[in-house]
What does this fold into?
Amino acid sequence: MTHTDKQVKQLDRVIIRFAGDSGDGMQLTGDRFTQETAAFGNDLVTLPNFPAEIRAPQGTLPGVSSFQVHFADHDILTAGDAPDVLVAMNPAALRANLGDLHKGATIIVDTHDFTARNLTKAGYTASPLDGDTLAEYALHTVDLTGMTVEAVKEFGLSRKDASRAKNMFALGLLSWMYGRPTDPTTAFLTKRFAKVPDIRDANLAAFKAGWNFGETTEAFAVQYEIKPAVMAPGTYRNITGNLALAYGLVAGGVQSGLPLFLGTYPITPASDILHELSKHKSFGVTTFQAEDEIAGVGAAIGASYAGHLGVTSTSGPGVALKSEAIGLAVMTELPLVVVDVQRGGPSTGLPTKTEQADLLQAMFGRNGEAPVPIVAPQSPGDCFAAAVEATRIAVTYRTPVLLLSDGYLANGSEPWRVPAVDDLPVIDPAFATEKNHFPNGADDPDSSEFWPYLRDEKTLARPWAIPGTAGLEHRIGGLEKGDGHGNISYDPANHDFMVRTRQAKVDRIADSIPPVEVDDPSGEAKVLVLGWGSTYGPIGAGVRRVRKAGYRVAQAHLRHLNPFPSNLGEVLKGYDKVLVPEMNLGQLSLLLRAKYLVDAVGYNHVRGLPLKATELAHAIGELVGQAEGVDIDLGVWGEPSQKEHI
Amino acid sequence: MSTSPLTDLGLPGLRSGTEQVPAADGPQTGKDFTSDQEVRWCPGCGDYAVLKAVQSFLPDLGLRRENIVFVSGIGCSSRFPYYLDTYGMHSIHGRAPSIATGIATAREDLSVWVVTGDGDALSIGGNHLIHALRRNVNMTILLFNNRIYGLTKGQYSPTSETGKVTKSTPMGSVDHPFNPVSLALGAEASFVARTIDSDRKHLTSVLAAAAAHRGTSLVEIYQNCPIFNDGAFDAIKSPDTKADAIIPLVHGEPITFGARLEDGRGSKALVRDPASGGVKVVATTDVAADDVLVHDAHCDDPTMAFAISRLTAADYLDQSPIGIFRQVERPTYDDQAREQVASATTDAGNDGTADPSARLAELIGGGDTWTII
It folds into this structure.
């Protein structure tokens, strides 16, 4: 495929959203465009968005599935607030996504499905393609399906099968428009459909036809060029959060020398972690698909007791079911990594949408005083490092750890610089091998005993003695343990002491984590924006907008939610105002207010979608205005469509 | 590895449940398995008898103490692990089978035991029990059935007879009870047995067979609660009535019970019931000797074992088959899970010497990558 002599226009970033029926293959189309874009060398962030129903009624609004990709010639932080280009495969896809577009955006519509029936299903009384309702957009009406069927007719497919290749026609067209390399998709289709030559050839033909259509038609006069981004040296790959998280767990196993045992039950949006880990048995990984959430965590606790790295993966409703077992791991002080890929709640909530509303569940969602360390990744690729860190804490401190990912991180993707294995922390399980208590002094080894609750002075971790170790036979359980010897104890003073000791052990983890870093270029900002988890991107983009507009603002992001980094209190004191954006009703704000008596100001949305950078910029700007006593005007930086570097 | 005479099946090709568990270096005694913790069940509790039987049986098993793990849930019987000087975990209500599944799957060199009760295993933990049995994880489950809730002080349990008057059912319970053996057979358990707390000899022989079995062994132990359900098992324990109440199951033997006839057979016999497709009790002298059902615990089809289990009285326990209902070979979950890991490891060309760091680097650096210099 060669380039034409059509006009070529330079852009520094573009946001494209592919939208269609859930059976139209929009996730695949978006994923392929993303891979082409990654191979080209742009920075990118993606946002898949799909219904919980596998196949909602065809042509309806609930059945619309979309995939948004934001790519640029510079580093970017979010999947973008408002698409520059919408590809709509049917009336419902147009109607469901139109409200997110800015005026002047490009809309490419497959006219084939704009029939009276489909228009009605989407709630249109008249076709929006007629008249001037879309006059403020650059509308391209194309019979994508018709041209696809025409392009693949030589392969003798049924009309239905032939029309299914329309997503590849659309991909070909968009690939031409943005000068994407086509080899990766050609190779992908050849491999994926190797066993069904007709389908393979039809998809390849549709893809090529889409490209050629762009090149030859007069409808698309301009081709766009987005130069590769300047990125730090290294080897990169595009990666989703769930994949990175699974790799991080494998790495945690390798770095600790422990066989990994995943006990889990399928749940959206965490299931891909199970799928991925089940492929890596060659790393000594055992995956156990249990009968329910409780059995999943129970088996993981059993495996940890037996000397494996016990892991359980789930989403919010599953954490609720596992709570009692997590409490058992707190009491028995066994290593356990609990992965919570958060989704919209409460109850079943919004299974395929994102939210950050499990922070307080992670923090407090158990009976009794049951402190559990919490670690949160901030971007899809960062899920890798966060999983390694969760493993480090779990093994070193003999404790369950909650790893709080979310639906946006899980399914979203970004280019990830592959870390050097040598740079990963080495995790020492330090199994107990000898008796540790000498009632008559070390001179009398015959009287020696094994005390399972004698603690390491520095970490307060107890010894991990695994079955098969002679002489260290011991019993643990959910009943309160006597300090040191670990036998059942109902002694009031002992219980008070043990409750405080378990808390102190978790607090001690702060000694092993880096201080929170503040990005405050001028050093004179009065407002700090503090976040955690997947809001990192939108907060960063919002902060950039405010700074571009000429105002000062500081930003910090928390990897550790429990315990907090030791310097967090000091950092908070250094600012007049602290803004805490979250996809919940203020859960981190609550913790900060309680612990540091800081007047944290919340910025909270629970729409099942990532926060929008533009809206955040306005919220930050407003607070900066109050703190500095000035009127704030963000100018173009307050508009979602501005095309400068963000 | 283990050469325990008790668990050596003497059958080539059949793998013992403790085959990969290291044998003890020398003789052991019950004292070796007795922890320093004071036993705190009520006086007269049937749990004492079971504990004594297990403590005297374990030395005969001949395994290293450190390679034995007892896991329990919640309830009176679940205090069991504290009293044995092995590895053990007293976990949470109903979940012991899942915790034991993790232990047994992680480690082939451990002998894994679950101690549970009728409430723990059949109410709150019913789901885990049936799935452990279905998967056939290599472990032995001792289900202490006293047909009452003891630790919560006397409410009816899922094995209590209908109409049971308790603290929570002053007008009598309206629940239909589970028959644990029928339930286990329905879940296609590969080893199902029933025994009695006070019959040390039978209990010990069942424990030995259960330990020898590779897969999940479910042993229901009738256990008297002298405080909240005293006398529940009197009919099968009393010398006056037990001959008529116990239907003894011995593999390969015709099933008869009741007062002895001159030829040594019991006066009552089990025969097939063409009308129901099940099994019924008849006078031994009324049927031809060939018509008396011969117990076949090794029959792959659990239908007959299930039919026999239905002869258990659902109300007052005046009739109950006792013995090994079913004992069949079936691949275990843990063996197969470990086999997959082992074969994947071999396929990856990793015989244990390959550098895991290099393989990790290869994994995370795989896929479509690009390099920026």
Q: What stands out?
A: Chain A touches chain B through 73 residues (CB under 8 Å). The two ends of chain A are 32 Å apart (CA to CA). The mean pLDDT of chain A is 95. The domain at 518-637 of chain A is CATH 3.40.50.920 (Rossmann fold).
